[in-house]
From TrEMBL:
This is Choline/carnitine acyltransferase domain-containing protein. InterPro entries: ExoRNase_PH_dom2_sf (IPR036345), PNPase/RNase_PH_dom_sf (IPR027408). It comes from the Eukaryota. It comes from Necator americanus (Human hookworm).
Length: 93
């Protein structure tokens, strides 16, 4: 078989918005126990430079949240790539 060569490594991340009376908070990949208390969900697939896919559920009151989530997803993507490189490719993807 021939290995699949990708120009980029897509990475998925989920965000949930926890809403209380004072402010909304972004939770990144929260545990399932907290998800039921969240008012909105955002799922993104990023490749290190672009948001390849985004899906939202619920109302996001602050437009800046999407920019923040995109930046957090890109940072997490880079952290994952760095961890893979530091491992010397020994871990299977």
């Amino acid at each position: 078989t021939t290995p699949l060569n990708l120009a980029t490594l897509p990475f998925a991340v989920s965000f949930h918005i926890f809403r209380n009376s004072k402010q909304d908070k972004i939770l990144v990949d929260p545990p399932q126990e907290l998800v039921q208390y969240c008012a909105a969900k955002v799922f993104m697939v990023v490749d290190g430079k672009n948001v390849l896919f985004m899906r939202t559920r619920g109302v996001i009151r602050d437009d800046q949240f999407l920019s923040t989530m995109s930046a957090l997803a890109e940072r997490r993507h880079q952290d994952i790539l760095d961890a893979i490189r530091d491992d010397g490719g020994r871990s299977a993807l």
